[in-house]
Design brief:
Helix content is about 45%, strand content about 15%. It is built from 40 helices and 27 strands. The strands form seven sheets. A six-stranded antiparallel beta sheet has the order 12-14-13-16-17-15, with helices on both faces. β8 and β9 form a beta hairpin. The longest helix has 22 residues.
């Protein structure tokens, strides 16, 4: 229960912000208060802000009461800069407006747009934003700018500081500033003349101090995000330029960033990469220095050089898709991943040869081979991007994975790296590995740490003291190159920069935030033990998710990310429940379990797309199924068993219900039907009705079937056997009849499994945690398909992708089962004459299609049938999730909130799952149907 000023604050903001976006309870403040760092603070209040007006109102109310506030965007930062024990403001996923210049030379972005989304906007124009952190798919613009995050290719030339055009801010007192607006700057000058004068005076003092100016100039020749961006004081004369560039890398301690305008950079379409292996790390570092010198002298064009030491390579060598030769290397081999880009293919060939020539003096373990094949260089970069989380996956449960981020002058790179490795051995971090952006002298080193033991904490402290002295004093490097200072390195800023520079930083903080309410404890922190306090526990909870390092990479893929919990949140909550149970606090654990049901269980789609983004493949959907199984009552179990054993009866009941709903709809019309069913839902909690709900269907199994040498077993899913077309649909034929027509057109003899009405893949049961019933249906179906296919002699087609995926996971035999996309590509299109249609179409890859790795194949098939194919970039899982779209429609609403605008030009729409198509049709206004309808529409039998 909040008291005093916090209670007053809560009452005040609650007048203008919806209650479902304000959190003060233990569960939500815990999960929303957690970021990717190894620190934890528990906020008193968490607020999800939808826009800058709300943020301004919150800041003003906090400023009145001198209450500390912290800003959070994607929560992927690693140094503890986005946590709070006071008020945490999270930019919601609605905070995503953007504006692109006519000539595409700059783009204005609100803080909750991810780096990936920004680049998707720019992609068709061969442009991108400069910063390219490894977390770009999950990291949001607010955090990218606030941390001056860089990455693998941008170096120091294309980071936020260098590509900033203008910025919109909300200051500590709630004042707004738009540095692109003369009117805004004029008003700001009136209200904050002292702030601007103080900045100009600080810049003058800095420039007049030759020793300090030279230090600043030297420090920023390599990557540096340790402390404030002091280079703004010597790089600029105009007070607004100084102000805006000081904000970059300030980690929310000086102002809130409501919009950033970046100058865009070229994204050359032609790229080539080479994974080059050296005999040891010294040779690799020497090669980096040689490449850097040649690049600076403009003898070569190179965009990225990433180093991976031997332990880094070994950490990923057993992962799926990794080259076999990685396992053959000795314990010294070190890799450089080199990339070059060009606007023309001829230039690309020239550039790769020039790089190879530069490296001729070095002995390599394998020949240097550049590749411009997308699938090959994508694998190389997958190896690199998976290194940090890969360590987390193999750590001892309960320990933390730590990533440090330093930069050395390039001339010291070899010596400094060998010294760093020696420090690993000295302090017993034998598993530690090194990788990073070598061209900029920027290395990350990763190790595991137990913070549950005082001796282990002491070991960590001694190690960090050795590292900081080596990096900052001996080699004059950067203690934080791109991850930001946060709490992790705040205690060491003065060590790196010296007293004069540190005093400048203190002055900057006081000029912007004299009351000290913005993210206190970050960057400026006089507690020399700050890096050892508020350490986050990672207790054991469930084998399915224990390897999670809470990086947040999964969150953009999750359909519930804007309304309830994400996979990271679900894991954090379960870890806390397990921790409480382990110390005997069962009452509090039970309270959290109850609070978790809606956000954690009921609105989880169990789509498992999180596993495709997770660097260690964690499937939080599997955890949800496990927890649902734990909650099943004996009565529920009996009902599920009855349904499984009487499946045809269940389907008959569904048909009656669907036909009845459709009949009433036709009688009373859409408006009245919608009103009636909405009222029933509010009063009785009945499932949601939609105009796109199909009518009931009974399939015709007695079609004319011609004998042929080409045979296929067709298994129509239970949905295809019960759901026809909705009154909204423009298609006359149902999916079953359409599939039969396509197969016969292609010359197939169709075999239907026996006892078809009783067959089901088991997914309706497994998704709800009914393991026993799901297994029963799966075994029954597998045997029927074995019999129908003559022990796998004939291919098997299932018309629904999710069902196909379930069969792949559950069946133990090696019968070949296809969903529509691969079956059409492998067996159908070559048997038909295809004529592309002119109408623009859109497609939706189901979660199952994506997990089966056939998203790109879906695009290929669509392009065989249509001249224009639209793939909405911000739509992943549709959130319908079987029956979730009926019972928790808010999940579907949220997941598809961008669908209509991103498919507005499409005339026809296709997918591979009936239930997904219900929600897709409703939210787009298009009539979504199976891809088999498109194949049927554009094909004819070969003469």
């Amino acid at each position: 229960m909040l008291e005093g000023k916090y209670k007053d604050f809560l009452e005040s903001i609650s007048k203008n912000i919806e209650h479902n976006r304000i959190f003060t309870d233990k569960l939500h403040t815990l999960v929303y208060g957690t970021d990717a760092s190894f620190y934890r603070l528990l906020p008193k209040v968490v607020i999800k802000a939808d826009n800058s007006d709300e943020v301004q109102a919150i800041i003003k109310e906090a400023y009145k009461r001198e209450l500390p506030i912290t800003f959070r965007a994607g929560g992927t930062s690693l140094s503890g800069q986005a946590i709070s024990d006071s008020i945490l403001i999270i930019t919601s996923r609605k905070f995503t407006n953007f504006k692109l210049a006519e000539d595409k030379s700059y783009i204005s972005l609100e803080p909750a747009i991810t780096g990936e989304q920004a680049n998707n906007i720019l992609k068709e124009f061969n442009k991108k934003i400069g910063p390219d952190p490894a977390s770009i798919n999950a990291a949001m613009i607010g955090g990218i700018a606030a941390n001056n995050a860089s990455g693998m290719c941008c170096g120091t030339a294309q980071n936020s500081y260098k590509t900033l055009k203008s910025i919109k801010l909300i200051m500590a007192d709630g004042t707004r500033l738009d540095t692109a607006s003369e009117k805004s700057k004029k008003e700001f000058k009136k209200e904050h003349a002292k702030l601007l004068n103080d900045l100009k005076e600080l810049a003058k003092i800095t420039k007049d101090n030759q020793e300090l100016s030279k230090l600043i100039e030297k420090k920023y020749k390599i990557k540096n995000t340790c402390g404030y961006s002091l280079n703004a004081l010597i790089d600029y004369e105009d007070e607004f330029d100084i102000l805006s560039h000081l904000i970059i890398g300030s980690e929310g301690t000086l102002a809130f960033i409501e919009e950033v305008t970046y100058n865009t950079v070229e994204d050359y379409p032609n790229k080539a990469s080479a994974l080059i292996f050296f005999e040891n790390i010294k040779d690799a570092c020497d090669a980096v220095a040689k490449i850097k010198l040649a690049k600076d002298d403009k003898k070569i064009v190179v965009d990225a050089v990433e180093l991976m030491d031997n332990k880094a390579l070994k950490s990923v060598q057993d992962k799926e898709g990794m080259p076999e030769y990685l396992k053959q290397f000795n314990n010294e081999v070190t890799a450089l991943l080199v990339e070059t880009r060009a606007n023309k293919k001829t230039n690309l060939t020239k550039q790769t040869k020039e790089i190879e020539t530069i490296l001729n003096e070095f002995t390599t373990v394998r020949d240097i081979e550049f590749t411009s094949k997308v699938e090959e260089y994508t694998l190389f970069w997958k190896i690199r991007k998976g290194l940090f989380p890969a360590v987390g996956a193999v750590r001892k449960i309960g320990t933390t994975v730590i990533i440090e981020d330093v930069a050395y002058p390039i001339e010291s790179l070899s010596e400094a790296t060998l010294e760093l490795q020696a420090m690993f051995e000295k302090h017993g971090y034998h598993e530690a590995l090194i990788f990073g952006h070598a061209l900029d002298g920027n290395f990350h080193f990763v190790f595991t740490q137990d913070f549950n033991d005082e001796k282990e904490i002491k070991r960590y402290d001694e190690f960090m003291n050795d590292v900081t002295n080596s990096v900052a004093l001996k080699y004059q490097g950067s203690l934080k190159a791109e991850h930001g200072t946060g709490r992790n390195m705040a205690a060491f800023i003065e060590l790196e920069w010296g007293k004069a520079a540190f005093n400048m930083m203190e002055n900057i903080k006081n000029i912007f935030d004299p009351s000290g309410i913005l993210n206190p404890g970050v960057i400026i922190n006089h507690d020399k033990q700050a890096h050892l306090k508020n350490l986050k526990p990672l207790p054991q909870t469930n084998d399915l998710v224990d390897t999670c390092i809470e990086c947040g990479f999964c969150e953009p893929m999750c359909p519930s990310n804007a309304i309830t919990f994400t996979p990271r949140h679900r894991i954090v909550a379960n870890r806390e429940i397990s921790r409480l149970e382990s110390i005997g606090e069962q009452k509090e654990a039970d309270e959290l379990k109850e609070a978790y049901v809606y956000d954690g269980l009921e609105t989880c789609a169990t789509c498992s797309l999180c596993s495709t983004a997770c660097p260690v493949g964690i499937d939080t959907g599997a955890l949800t199924k496990y927890l649902r199984h734990e909650r099943i009552t004996p009565t529920q179990d009996k009902i599920a068993t009855f349904i499984a054993n009487n499946f045809s009866t269940t389907l008959s009941g569904m048909r009656v219900g669907l036909k009845g709903a459709n009949l009433v709809h036709n009688l009373v019309g859409t408006s009245l039907m919608s009103g009636m069913t909405s009222s029933f839902r509010k009063l009785l909690g009945t499932p949601k009705w939609s105009a796109t709900l199909p009518s009931g269907l009974s399939i015709n199994k007695k079609f004319v079937n011609k004998a042929s040498d080409k045979k296929v077993v067709y298994f129509p899913s239970c949905l295809s056997r019960t759901m026809g077309q909705s009154s909204f649909s423009q298609e006359e034929k149902n999916l079953y009849d359409t599939t039969v027509e396509v197969l016969q057109k292609a010359g197939f003899e169709i075999i239907l499994p026996k006892e078809l009405e009783e067959l089901c893949c088991g997914m309706p049961f497994s998704s709800k945690g009914f393991k026993k019933q799901a297994e029963h249906k799966s075994i029954q179906l597998e045997q029927a398909l074995i019999d129908a296919s003559a022990n796998g002699e004939y291919p098997i087609l299932c018309d629904t992708s999710p069902c196909t995926k379930k069969m792949h996971e559950s069946f133990i035999s090696d019968i070949k089962i296809y969903e529509p996309i691969e079956f059409c590509l492998d067996y159908v299109v070559n048997e038909l004459e295809l004529t592309k249609i002119d109408e623009p179409i859109t497609i939706h890859s189901t979660c199952s299609s994506r997990k089966m790795g056939i998203h790109e194949k879906f695009i290929d098939l669509a392009k065989l049938c249509a001249n224009e194919v639209i793939v909405p970039t911000d739509v992943k899982c549709c959130g319908f999730a079987g029956d979730r779209g009926f019972n928790f429609p808010e999940l579907n609403d949220s997941a598809l909130n961008k669908l209509k605008e991103q498919t507005s030009r499409a005339k026809l729409a296709f997918s591979t799952s009936k239930t997904c198509e219900i929600g897709l049709s409703e939210h787009s206004g298009l009539d979504y149907n199976s891809i088999l309808y498109l194949v049927n529409r554009c094909s004819s039998t070969k003469v």
